[in-house]
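Handout, tutorial session.
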Amino acid sequence: MTGLAMSDKSQTEIEEGLAFAPKYDADGLITAVATDVKSGDVLMVAHMNAEALRKTIESGEAWYYSRSRKRLWKKGETSGHIQRVAELRVDCDQDALWLKVEQLGPGACHTGRRACFYRAVPLGKAGSVTLEFRDGGKTFDPGKVYDKK
């Protein structure tokens, strides 16, 4: 379903051809970056295994593989904050994916925010670094969303 193994393709075929040949890492995962289809904002970065990628392509909704929980998960399965995939792209050497998504619900981040990238690292400063909040307001209460019993 997800194409030929990378070793079966030449570099030119991988970079210039039409065959989908995702390159998974040693753990069988590929990095997936999800952005908002309208604003272009980066919502989150996650990983997919072959099954998550297959389910995403077949369903049109984002599926990922949780490295911490060691299991497949559908984005929004607990929160209801599903990601509808408008477009799925692969990078030049096919070792990263870009999902342009319609984020349903108030946020993509498990901390209760719209996106996972809500802190900035200040540049041009020497010494210890203190993060700065940017667009860090919570859009939902994660305790109410994830602690359902």
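The second record follows below. Compare its token runs with those of the first.
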Amino acid sequence: MRVISGKYKGKTLVGYDVIGTRPTMDRVKESLFGTIQNYILNSVSLDLFAGTGALGIETLSNGGKECYFVDNGPKIKKYLQTNLKSVENAIFLNMDYKQALNYFKENNITFDIIYLDPPYHEHLINYSLELINNYNLLNHDGIVVCEYVDEKINCSYELVKNKKYGDKYINIYRNVK
């Protein structure tokens, strides 16, 4: 698995084969980043269930200002730290997603792009979206990218795009408030 474009193009990412990770396939990343490219330049982003960090690293590779990577999986931590070596403006927080969202609220950190790709079987997207909205963590005109399999999403943000890739869906929401 590699970074597909930008400054870090070709960088090999480790940990994609760890049980419990489901890396976003290159063709899906290519389509996704083609869709959100106008949001990336100088953005502050959050890769909330980071796993290998592929989405956040891709964002930084394509001109993002900084990215927070949040994951508390004990197996994936060392791989994510390895992937973030030599990646500028990457901030890793080894904590639970609820703790992280509260941390951002308490420290007045807001985002232009938020990636939500939690473990599918835990159905955490709706609760994550609720906290993001309640804590005002998404900037005006910011986007949330949700990757899921069978979750019915209820969201107060505007749906910009919904696309199916094999058995998974990607929804992109925009904060128009």
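Points raised in discussion: The chain has one domain: 26-174.
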